[in-house]
Amino acid sequence: MGILQICIVILVLVLLVKPLGTYLYNVFQKENNKTDKWFSFVEKPIFRLIGLKERKGMTWKKYAFSFVLTNIVLVTVSYLILRLQKFLPFNPNNMDNMEPTLTFNTVISFMTNTNLQHYSGESALSYFSQMAVIMMMMFTSAATGLCVAIAFIRAITSKGETIGNFFEDFVKAHIRVFLPLAFVVTLLLVALQVPQTLQPTLSVSGLDGQVQQIAIGPVASLESIKHLGTNGGGFFGVNSSHPFENPNPLTNVIEILSMWSLAAALPYTFGLFAKNKKQGWVIFSAMMILFVLFLSLAYVSESKGNPVLNQLGIDSSQGSMEGKEVRFGVAQSTLFTTVTTAATTGSVNNMHDTLTPLGGVTPLALMMLNCVFGGKGVGVMNMLMYAILAVFLAGLMVGRTPEFLGRKIEAREMKFIAIAILAHPLIILAPTAIALMTEVGKVAISNPSFHGISQVLYEFTSSAANNGSGFEGLGDNTPFWNISTGIVMLFGRYISMIALLAVAGSMLRKKWVPETIGTLRTDNGLFIGILVGTVLIIGALTFLPAIVLGPIAEHLTIR
Asked: Residue 191 in contact with residue 86, Cβ under 8 Å?
C-alpha cells in the first residue's frame, strides 16, 4: 500500500511536468504569447514605476549585480522589521524584538531560500513579521533563484542573444508564476481546514479546567508559498508535522507536489529553450533515477524499523514510527523527507533527527549532491553543470574538444565549474570540523556519539544546500551557530549562482559549431548513464568519508 501511494504521487508529478514546463517557457521566452494577455496589464504599471521602459538585455555581470543588490536591499529592510517588531502593527500576542544574531541568521536564511529556523515561529514572530518578512522573502528568494536559472538556460541555449533582464524576469516570476499559484494552493489548503486568520492566540479550557494557549494565524497563505517557492520555513516550530499546517494525507500530497512540481518542470523548460525536448527529458530522467535510488533507501530503512527496538522484540510491523505522524505513516513520511531534501525545501512532516541511520543518509546525500530537482532553479543549474562536466570528461577520454549544445567547452568554463563544485563541500566540511573541535560548537550537540557528528554535519549541509531542515536535537540557537550557519548560507547561495552565471556568460559569447559524427550526443540514454555516474562519483569522492563517520558508523554500532 505504501509503495502504491508513492507511485501515484510520482505519476501525478510526471503528468504535471509538460504543462508546467511549457507554461514557464511561455512566461520567460522573448516572443509574445498568451500569458501577456493575462498579466501584462498588471506588469506594465510596475515596469513604469521602477523605470524599466526598454527592458534591455544584460551581461552576466550586470545580471548578477542586479540580483545581489536587490537581495541586499530586502535583507536590510527585513532586518529592521524583525529588530523593531515590538513597535509595529499586527502584533496581538505582543512579541518582543528578535535578538541580533538570531535576526542575522533569520534574514539571511529566508533571503537565501534556506529557511533554516533557529526559532519557533508561533512564539518569536508577530503576524506582521510573518507576512512582511517571512512570506515576502519566500516570494522574492524563490523568484530570484528561478530568474537566475532561466538566465543560465537562455545563455547556454541561445545563439548570440543576451542573458535577459533581471528586473523583467523578477517581476514576471512574481506576477505570472508564484502569486497565482500561491493563491490557488492557499484556497485548497483553507478548504482542507488549514487556518487563515489574523485573530490572536486562542485561549481554550480543557476537560480538566486548565487553560491552553493555541497559536493560529495566516497559516494557509504561508504554507502555499513555503512549498511552491521551496522555502520550507514553517509557521509553527514543528513545521508540516503540525496539524494546522498539514492536517491530513491529502494536504500532505498537495504540499509534496507544490514543492516538487516547478523544480521537476524546469528540465522540460530547458528542453524547449534548447529546441530539443529530448535534452530536457535526459536531465529529468537523471534526476528521477537518483531520486528513486535515495527514496528506496529511506523507505526500506524506515519500513524495517529501528534495529535496537527490533532486538528488544517490539513490534515494528508499521516500520520505524518514532518522530512520525500516524496520519502519514512511513510511506508519506519518507516520500516527504526525500522530496523536501531533493527539492531543497526544508519543510518536514516528520523529525529527521529520529530517522534510522541509513534512512538519514537519504536527506544528507540529496543535499550534498544538490542537483536532484533542487530548489527554484538550483537543481537544473547544478545538473546542467554536471552535464557540462560529464561532456568535458568524456571528451578528454576520446581525445576530442568537448561540445555542449553547439558550444565548445574550454578552460574558462571549467574553472568556474570547479569553483562551484569545490565550494559546496568546503563550506560544509570545514565548518563541521570547526564545530566538532571547539566547545562553542560541541555544547549544542545533544548526542555525543556518531549521531552527534550527523547532527553537526546535517546542520551545515542543510545550510550550504539552502535547504533549512535539521536534525533538531541540535541546540543551535546560540551566537556561534547563528553566525556560522548564516555565513555558510550566504556562500552556499551566491558563490555557485555567480560562478554558473559566469559560465553562462562565457558560453553565450562562443560561436555555435555544427554537430558532427564525432560529437557526443547528450540527448540519449547513454548520456543519462554518464550523467548519473558523474554525479555519484563526484559526490562519493567528496562526501563519503563524512557520511561513514556519521550515519553509517551509527548503523554499524546498533544493527
From this structure: no
Residue with cell 526525500: 338
The whole-angstrom separation of Cα 101 and Cα 480 is 9
Closest of 373, 404, 380 to residue 153, by C-alpha? 380
Distance separating alpha carbons of residues 382 and 493, to the nearest angstrom: 12
Question: Distance between CA atoms of 285 and 266, rounded to whole angstroms?
Answer: 12
Residue 512 DSSP label: P
Q: Please say whether the beta carbons of 344 and 233 come within 8 A.
A: no
pLDDT reading at 36 higher than 90: no
Amino acid 93: pLDDT: 82
Report the alpha-carbon distance of residue 115 to residue 540 in Å, rounded: 27
Query: Are residues 291 and 373 in contact, defined by beta-carbon separation less than 8 angstroms?
Result: yes
Distance in angstroms (rounded) separating the CA atoms of residues 443 and 306:
27
Question: What single string gives the DSSP state of each residue in 374-430?
Answer: -STTHHHHHHHHHHHHHHHHHHHHHTS--EETTEE--HHHHHHHHHHHHHHHHHHHH
SS3 350: strand
DSSP 324: B
375 phi/psi in degrees, rounded to 5? -75, -165
Closest CA to 283 of 260, 263, 302: 263
Lowest-pLDDT choice from 4-8, 162-166, 290-294, 333-337 = 162-166
Residue 248 CB contacts under 8 Å (≥ 6 apart), including other chains = 192, 193, 327
- 289-333 confidence digits (pLDDT tens): 999 999 999 999 999 988 888 888 887 888 899 999 999 999 999
Which amino acid belongs to residue 4?
L
Could you count the other beta carbons within 10 Å of the beta carbon of residue 477? 17
C-alpha cell at 7: 507511485
Cβ atoms of 373 and 260 closer than 8 Å: yes
**Contact, 50 vs 167, CB < 8 A?**
yes
Q: How confident is the model at residue 512 (pLDDT cuts 50, 70, 90)?
A: confident
For position 384, what pLDDT does the model report? 95
Q: Is the pLDDT of residue 400 over 80?
A: no
Q: What is the DSSP letter of 174?
A: I
Residue 267: in which H helix or E strand, if any?
helix 249-273
The burial class, CB within 10 Å (0-12 / 13-18 / 19+), for 296 is middle
* Whether the Cβ atoms of residue 177 and residue 519 lie closer than 8 Å to each other: no
pLDDT digits (tens, 9 = 90+) for 224-254: 999 999 988 888 888 999 999 999 999 999 9
d(CA 128, CA 82): 9
Cβ proximity of 351 and 472 under 8 Å: yes
% of the chain surpassing 90 pLDDT = 67
Burial of 484 (0-12, 13-18, 19+ CB in 10 A): buried
pTM, full prediction: 0.94
Judge contact between 340 and 504, C-beta under 8 A.
no
Residue 202 bridge partners (DSSP): 214
